[in-house]
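Morning run. Coffee first, then this:
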Amino acid sequence: MQKNSIKESLVSQDRLNGIRKTLPYHYYQDFIKAWKKSNKDKAPSRQTVYKTLKGELDNIKIINTLLEMTEERVSINSKIDQVLSHAEG
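And here it is:
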């Protein structure tokens, strides 16, 4: 992991901000669970994940795990919206 400027980052700062807005306030415990599903390595520290999410570090494994978490949350929210719209109709 190395420090990069935002312009050299693997993922744009806008995309990282979108991920951050989608995650719950206390997302780190969910991150640990998602990390263990796809990685055998020890999970990175909370500070490392936060710095990656802010764009201060580039770590593709962390970014991929955060993207998976985001996609899962969006999928769940859309299913809930579908159920609620059918219940109203």
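The CA atoms of residues 29 and 46 lie 9 Å apart. Good start to the day.
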